[in-house]
Design a protein that fits this description.
431 residues; alpha+beta; Adenine-n6-DNA-methyltransferase TaqI, Chain A, domain 2
Length: 431
């Protein structure tokens, strides 16, 4: 690809002492290979840096041989050139082998600070600048950075002393920001634990701590109020799934506007339902299975896949929808629907999934097993009180979580803006 200077507007106004060169002027491509795989850890480039790969799990594709893998260390800058949307670039902290699909460069001399260039390219990945220089089959698939493009890509070069000062400044600033973000993330996790603990306690014990209790007969529930009943799921709901012969193929998938949403596990996040990023199914397939058409106050459960046990209640004013084969839907609910929903997010229902699911690589559970899940049934007035209490309390917790998540977003935006301004000379940090 021929790179036009007009496309490098982010480098228009650099300090007088800086120059703009090309990657090939200061770096060379490194492809040191070794067949002695056993002596080195296998590495993987992630958004959190270059990490040792866990070879005990089967996550990701494993090659038949590591002979073509490149040997990298802390003197290298490793790029993921295959994905300019969510890819990354970083310096390994340890020596190891990495896929030849990555691009690895090394400085030609000590005059170029590797970590300054790292920060520069990380800012370009974050701001999707590199995306405009991509090439491949299609921008949504294998849209990558060609080797020649990378070789000829412009890089700002401050004097060596200033490069070092910039790196020292950014290391200190970004570490501080990352520590703040980590503390907020820990707070969010505690809030989520508090929310889950509250739901578990109230749904299984009620609102009156002094009420007379009895043994539930279920070890992970323990005592329950004496006025409550224990039933099986099949006695309070009808459970439906997508029957095999009414499945569908890719030919039944249509564009938005030409069919109905087919709900998948990705429509459930933190036990909340969303129609974002939905897939659409033809009207013919929708009407073929009226028993799994989805309506307000239906409860959906993931029965197959890595997110087995995820659950949500369908809110009001939803469009016409159905479910994919990974889900089941609870209908004709004979107790307060929102109370049943709170039970499905409880620890004791999650325990039932854990005990009854089968399959190791793709866990699944049959509808018959779900029908036998234990369900607690307080008097209807108590169900309503519990729902009102939990709605109020969980909303307060969710609002606090939302505020903290917004803080993280602002900190990440500030961090990115800071890096971008410093590595392009718009903000000077010279002492």
């Amino acid at each position: 690809m021929i790179l036009s200077n007009q496309r490098f507007n982010w480098l228009d106004l650099i300090p007088n002492q800086w120059v703009v060169d090309k990657v090939k002027d200061h770096f060379y491509f490194s492809d040191i290979q070794t067949e002695h795989f056993i002596n080195y850890p296998v590495l993987s480039l992630t958004m959190s840096g270059v990490k040792k790969r866990n070879m005990d799990t089967n996550e990701g594709q494993l090659p038949e041989s590591y002979e073509k893998y490149n040997l990298v260390d802390s003197s290298c800058l490793v790029f993921n050139p295959m994905d300019l949307i969510s890819g990354w670039v970083d310096v390994p902290k340890t020596e190891g082998l990495i896929s030849p699909s990555y691009r690895t460069i090394k400085p030609r001399s000590e005059e170029t600070n590797l970590h300054f260039i790292k920060y520069y390219f990380q800012s370009l990945y974050k701001e999707k600048v590199l995306f405009h220089f991509g090439e491949g089959v299609h921008y949504e698939y294998r849209w990558g950075l060609g080797k020649e493009t990378l070789k000829n890509f412009p890089i700002p070069i401050p004097p060596k002393e200033e490069q070092e000062e910039i790196v020292s400044y950014l290391d200190k600033k970004t570490t501080h920001i990352d520590e703040l973000i980590k503390k907020i993330e820990q707070k969010i996790e505690l809030l989520k634990e508090q929310k889950n603990s509250l739901i578990n306690e109230v749904v299984t014990k009620g609102l009156n701590p002094k009420v007379e209790t009895k043994n539930s007969g279920i070890k992970w529930i323990g005592e329950i109020p004496s006025g409550w009943s224990k039933k099986k799921m099949k006695h309070i709901v009808n459970i439906f799934g997508r029957i095999g012969y009414r499945g569908y193929t890719t030919e039944d998938i249509v564009d938005e506007g030409d069919g109905v949403i087919t709900i998948s596990p990705s429509n459930i996040f933190e036990d909340k339902f969303s129609t974002d990023n939905s897939t659409y199914l033809s009207w013919e397939k929708y009407h073929e299975s009226p028993e799994i058409q989805i309506f307000t106050n239906d409860i959906i459960l993931v029965k197959t896949g890595s997110t087995i046990g995820k659950t949500s209640i369908i809110p009001e004013n939803v469009p016409e929808m159905t479910i994919n084969p990974q889900l089941i839907v609870l209908k004709n609910i004979k107790i307060y629907p929102k109370y049943l929903y709170y039970q499905t997010v409880c620890k004791f229902i999650k325990e039932s999934f854990g005990v009854e699911q089968t399959g190791s690589s793709t866990p699944t559970i049959s509808q018959e097993k779900v029908k036998d899940f234990p369900i607690l049934e307080p008097p209807i007035s108590e169900q309503q009180q519990i729902v009102e209490f939990l709605d109020e309390q969980t909303e307060l917790i969710d609002k606090t979580i939302s505020i903290e998540e917004r803080r993280i977003k602002l900190l990440k935006e500030y961090k990115q803006s800071l890096i971008s301004e410093v590595v392009t000379g718009k903000k000077r940090v010279v002492g």
